[in-house]
Amino acid sequence: MIRMVGSTLGVKVKGKLSRHTVQRSIQEGGVASRIQMGYELANLKSMFYEHLKMLSKTANSVKSGFTTSSDGTTHKNTNYDSRHFAYKVPLCPGSNKVRPVI
Fold it and tell me: What's the predicted TM-score (pTM) here?
């Protein structure tokens, strides 16, 4: 894959990644994505919470800025579970376009 991207960009790639290096890179990417997701969820601000805060002073119990759902089914004695969550991506400062804040 790295060679294909390199050839598309006109860059010759020397050497070859070992199977062990690829496996470690994939694992590190998974860990990094979980850390980033935890950070994003910890720093969410709920639009609903902000609206309630304007209307009432008793809105301290509604602070989550995301929604979750899950479902499950079975097929031929095999369980299939799915989980999903969504949150609103904050806007970059000074922009109207929806882009992740880095």
Answer: 0.47
